[in-house]
Amino acid sequence: MEKDSPKYYPVYVDLNRRRSLVVGAGKVAARKVRSLLEAGALVRVVSPDAVEEVAELARQGKIDWQKRTFAESDLEGAFLVVGAAGDPEVNRQVYEAADSASILINIVDEPGMCNFIVPSVIRHGEFQIAISSGGASPVLARKIREVLQYRFGPHYGELVEELSRIREGLKEKLPDESKRRQFWEQLIDLDFFDSLSIDEIHTKLRERAEECLLRLAD
Hints:
Radius of gyration: 22 Å
Shape: elongated
Number of helices: 9
Distance between the termini: 62 Å
CATH superfamily of the largest domain: NAD(P)-binding Rossmann-like Domain
Number of domains: 2
CATH architecture of the largest domain: 3-Layer(aba) Sandwich
Order of helices and strands: EHEHEEHEEEHHHHHH
Helix content: 40-55%
CATH class of the largest domain: Alpha Beta
CATH topology of the largest domain: Rossmann fold
């Protein structure tokens, strides 16, 4: 049953080693399978037939492909479900069964049959930006993502890794929480970050961190 437009709560979900079900195995479903595998999910696909990419993933043992139509029992043990069957009736059946069982469910291109949506994402390592229109206009979200990709390039992935290393042991160096907040406010400067090449990140960021520590150590 379709719902009024929801107010989505933005959240990142840990899918590592969690069972995810994809109903359908066409080109759209294949994209969903790829992204779930990249997130570390254990993927089961249910579909009578499949595009070659999905079939090859099954042959390689990377997914479990059940060559048949969807049954409600397929939801057993599933943490997350994606419906991309290409058949409106099958998709509705999947949605109603999963939503009734309080399982995360997304029917592709059907915002009214989702209890979660997938944003358009910029990803550089651990650095990620998610853009969403609440399901109203995926193309708008994609175009905004394309603009932001130029603003926040691949070196932001390296920056996040270095910031994570700097964070280690910071409590020992600055036991006072308010000073740690000041440290991060002083250290993180987007104009400075944008001026760095990938080769400079480690050295320049460490130098800036030491300067910030010296100012706050007393």
